[in-house]
Amino acid sequence: MKGQEWYQASDVAEEYDEKRFSRGGQLIDRREKRAVLEALGPVEDKRVLEIACGTGRFTVMLADRGADIVGLDISSAMLQEGREKARDAGVDDHLEFMRGDAARLPFPDDHFDAVFAMRFFHLADTPAKFLSEMARVSKNQVFFDTFNDTSTRSIYNWLLPMGSRLYSDDEVRDLVTGANLRLAGAEHDFVLPYGLYRKLPDWLANSLRSADTSLGRTRVGDALASVSYWDARV
């Protein structure tokens, strides 16, 4: 995994949400949460696993909606932030945070109704292995996002400290097929890269987002989108 040591640092975990989801990053947070909720649907009493749960943004949100959820991450520091977030939200008694390796999930086959991962596959060195493990422990649904190789992100990707793995549409479809999954749906979004939004005040980011969304609805929107959300079935 790219950045494995970086993500395990305490100072990185403590500042993670503030650096990425404040200012214009708030709209990214809202969009990603909407993508997860729309994909998973009603989650009450569903058994759900989040891979690379980080500080628990999605884990806590789904626990609050009644999911029986486990958040797995390799970073103890990130998990500690998640536990504090769960306590603050009053849901710490009905979710579980677990340290573990996504390449060797400590669960039996078909253990969860749904398994998802957000902001994970751009760091994956062996994406086929990770996706196969997600498919193995899910009895119904696998949901994940990718950063795309035809997007504006490719222009500045080499400047990023860890870079990102960028995917073509065909590569993702091959990964899904290789994991014995069936693609049920895909959404493509954010013509402008995340990094630009995070540098702007929220009001300006929202204005820019309106233009971004309009462009995304055009014929070239999907081809230029920097992020894709993939919904697959076992």
From TrEMBL:
GO biological process: methylation
Entry annotated with the keyword Ribonucleoprotein: no
InterPro entries linked to this entry: Methyltransf_25, SAM-dependent_MTases_sf
UniProt name for this protein: Class I SAM-dependent methyltransferase
Gene Ontology terms for molecular function: methyltransferase activity
Coiled-coil annotated spans: none
Annotated keywords: Methyltransferase, Transferase
Domain Methyltransferase: start-end pairs: 48-140
CDD domains: AdoMet_MTases (cd02440)
